Amino acid sequence: MNRIVECVPNFSEGRDLYKVEQIVQCFRAKENIKLLDYSTDKDHNRCVVTVVGEPEELKNAMVEAIGKAVELIDMTKHEGQHPRMGAVDVVPFIPIKNVTVEEADKLAKDVAKEASEKFGVPFFLYEKSATAKHRENLATIRKGQFEGMAEKMKESKWVPDFGPKTIHPTAGVTAIGARMPLVAFNINLATNDLSIADKIARQVRHIGGGFRFVKAMGVELEERGIVQVSMNLTDYTKSAVYRVFETVKMEAQRYGVNVVGSEVIGLVPMQALINSAEYYLRIENFSMDQVLETRL
Amino acid sequence: MNRIVECVPNFSEGRDLYKVEQIVQCFRAKENIKLLDYSTDKDHNRCVVTVVGEPEELKNAMVEAIGKAVELIDMTKHEGQHPRMGAVDVVPFIPIKNVTVEEADKLAKDVAKEASEKFGVPFFLYEKSATAKHRENLATIRKGQFEGMAEKMKESKWVPDFGPKTIHPTAGVTAIGARMPLVAFNINLATNDLSIADKIARQVRHIGGGFRFVKAMGVELEERGIVQVSMNLTDYTKSAVYRVFETVKMEAQRYGVNVVGSEVIGLVPMQALINSAEYYLRIENFSMDQVLETRL
Lengths: 296, 296
Hints:
Structural class of chain A: alpha+beta
Radius of gyration of chain A: 21 Å
CATH topology of the largest domain in chain A: Formiminotransferase-cyclodeaminase, Chain B, domain 1
Strand content of chain A: 15-25%
Oligomer: homodimer
CATH architecture of the largest domain in chain A: 2-Layer Sandwich
């Protein structure tokens, strides 16, 4: 695969594993598609799939999976702890290799167009694909959930971007769009005082005046007797890992607190870490093409 | 390709491009083999090929290329500025992905065995494959060059590891073995005093009491009016990039000299830089499996 997009669709089925398998099957045994992971949660009653592939093949597989989910999942009977508004709740496309965010955006729109025409499901474009500021955030779009969406979509500001003007009777409505890879990055502090982690979190996160692409909160690590600034970096190319790290370290010093370590949770794009090496080692004129693995 | 070894054979032909093409052709249009680069130098009269592949296929292609070089290159007529002792002068195998240095070592020995039997060329095992301490260093093995090797190989300490006990009449003798990827890493200093770069180079390099896997020398960057500590890191997993960088920075401070930047020349394995990010960001329990690109 030369050009790679990642897709992490969330389906509103986490209990009937026979249905889950039929949906996941759409990503198996396909040329230029690789199913990396899928996990179900009974309490959330939800399935999260991670798949990578070439744009064209990924589009076809994703449209097929939406069709299967619309056929199998009945939202009028769905219950679970996780907020949800559709059988296919959200479909993010993430540029990974030799693909721009603009191309991931086009892919999201192509899938929305084709799937809305074929299956009669409405789509909201979100994140980098959003057509208005108030539609960028998934939580804002999803507010009211499946049960409230028919009423909400009567408002002119909630007319969907593709498909019918109201919900699909059993499959609800889907959010789709391009976003950057997420980096889950936590910084551990040498104190058990949660209020310090909370204060630092408020300072570095976007909503409190901090970095544009940082979400953060303070968390207690009870077993270790320390606290942590737990973060999601939603665009590491703009809000760099090293810059966030150094800022947290600096703020911690005001309380006489040291950084004891950090954690990267789950997968991280190579470039997010190499950017940090570049900064600390002061490397001049570095190009990602110099990384051996990008040439393979 | 799931398991990847890199091979960088050096052939003693850099002028007759028709001959070069015939040798390089052995690495083209082969399943699970990718020719990344090859370059010839007229003054050196030498060709350096960079190829990656799965171990088994790389072995077959390399044996074929040795046969072609033995057929086409006559060392009795070879002249060039670069030291050399054989038509195929040196063949390093470098573990890149899902391959251990032990497997690269086995590959080197398999190629040496097969090629020595087929083409009657003797082989010295060098670097990580060396069978004795005095045979690790290529320059030591090659001393005396093609013209002096027949005499040198009469000594019991220079009996080759594979093949006939003396040189091939026209193809000489070849060094082959496993080595780690090389990182060419230079650190630029805010001074035009070459003696400072020289002194630091002597302190960080192995031969002067420094790091085991660092070769270093002082170099003048005339255009920029600064000097540089120019280094080869021959095993970044043992002599880490960040540790060398911090040591050079520390030594420069004794002269009141700042590090203005650094350079990575050519290709660098992802892990060499990610290790540095891990150090500076103090990441706990990081695994290379968390790098998205390793999962593709």
